[in-house]
Amino acid sequence: MKITIIGAGPGDPDLITVKGLKHLEEADVVLYADSLVNEELIRKSKPSAEILKTAGMHLEEMVDLMVDRLKNGKKVVRVHTGDPAVYGAIMEQIALLKKKEVDVEIIPGVSSVFASAAAAGAELTIPDLTQTVILTRAEGRTPVPEFEKLKSLAGHHCTIALFLSATLTKKVMRELIDAGWKEDTPIVVVYKATWPDQKIVRTTVAGLDVAMKENGIRKQAMILAGWALDEQIHDKDFRSKLYDKEFTHGFRKGIQS
């Protein structure tokens, strides 16, 4: 027996992968996080498919439903928002499924972090400025490991993408500043990336909390922080070696000045 977990992408129904869409269209049973996944995408399921919303279900209930349908010979898919590998809560499902001798196939999706960067017109890794992106979240009701506190991670002064942190902006500001970040360091907040009501807010470390409150953003927001998000980055001379005319690589000989 096998179920397929599909990354639906950040919101735009066209951002699911071709492979993910194929499995969705073939499924007899579709379970999806109805609080996050676009209903327009779920409507691409075949008319006879059983559609099950999971926002109101607990873990064991979901797993028992999937196993029951599998035992009845149904093709079952579980649709997650974004990419399941990041804050997807899939391991707890897989652990229970494996105990019931059910195999799991995972089809990746477009993460909200990359959809947000695209919406902001940003490259998160800029030569000679930052070559590292940290994906994390601020510590709230759910703790983070001791060595992964935001202040500690921010000490690297690279690009940081903050998931699940829209209600913790004062904490984010404090920890970034305590890590030595300048108050004018650029931040881009993308609310509901790729959805019709997407909103992009440009601010700074010092202005983050006020900007979030002024725009009424309390959930479903990606916070991208660091100098790679500078709105004037295009006016500065940061070039990769890849397209440098003087740089030789396996596909091109450099032209010396």
TrEMBL record:
The protein's annotated pathway: Cofactor biosynthesis; adenosylcobalamin biosynthesis
Tetrapyrrole methylase domain ranges (all copies): 2-208
CDD domains according to UniProt: Precorrin-4_C11-MT
Pfam families per the UniProt record, alphabetical: TP_methylase (PF00590)
EC number: 2.1.1.133
Keyword terms: Cobalamin biosynthesis, Methyltransferase, S-adenosyl-L-methionine, Transferase
UniProt entry tagged with the keyword Lipoprotein: no
Transmembrane annotation, as ranges: none
GO molecular-function term, one example from the UniProt record: precorrin-4 C11-methyltransferase activity
UniProt KW Protease keyword: no
Gene Ontology biological process terms in this record: methylation
Enzyme type, top EC level: transferase
Family (UniProt): Belongs to the precorrin methyltransferase family.
PANTHER family: COBALT-PRECORRIN-4 C(11)-METHYLTRANSFERASE (PTHR45790:SF4), SIROHEME SYNTHASE-RELATED (PTHR45790)
Entry protein name: Precorrin-4 C(11)-methyltransferase
